[in-house]
Amino acid sequence: MWGFISNFFASHSTYYNNAVGVILTCAILYDFLFRTSIGFNMLFLEEIWSRNFTNLFIAPIKIGEIIISLVFTALIRALIGLIPAILLTSPLFGISLLDLGVHLFLLFLSLYIFGITLGIFVSAGLLRFGPSFENIAWSTMFLLAPFGCVYYPIEILPEFFQ
Questions:
Q1: Residue 17 lies inside a defined structural domain of this protein
Q2: Which of 14, 16, 23, 129 might form a disulfide with 9, Cβ 3.0–4.6 angstroms?
Q3: What would the mean pLDDT of 65-88 be, rounded to a whole number?
Q4: Considering the domain boundaries, does residue 50 fall inside one?
Q5: CB-based burial, 87-114: b 16+ in 10 Å, e otherwise
Q6: CA distance 38 to 36
Q7: What span, in angstroms and rounded, lies between the C-alpha atoms of 111 and 129?
Q8: At what angle do helices 2-12 and 63-93 cross, to 10 degrees?
Q9: In this predicted model, which residue has the larger pLDDT, 152 or 93?
Q10: How many domains does the chain have?
Q11: pTM of the model
């Protein structure tokens, strides 16, 4: 959706020539962060919904092993959404994120670490406050989106948020 809107602006104005690349890149990066955090939270919420905590904590599995399995599963789920998005932006919009090289990998790594960290904090809230904390689990990334400046420059935010 954002790619087509950006193409419209780029074809009707010289000011928006770079908007296609910027908006698509930001949307893909934010989607990776969103999928990582929600992927971690969803796996944890599924354990709550299925009332499987008793089985998890009775089994000879350490808490670290549970977290590692959630981390790797969230990575796989995020990559399932990320790889087609990166591969489709080049033929559809003429923009290749892979041109960024190593910097792109480091950026994805930092987004992944932030998403997992946020997922761990939300999971801790779920353990502490129970299913009533579920609304926070779903809305965390949406609440942080305005401060992430995904679709606009950081100068738009008020001084104290910059």
A1: no
A2: 16
A3: 89
A4: yes
A5: eebeeebebebeeeeeeeeeebeebbee
A6: 6
A7: 27
A8: 30
A9: 93
A10: 1
A11: 0.79
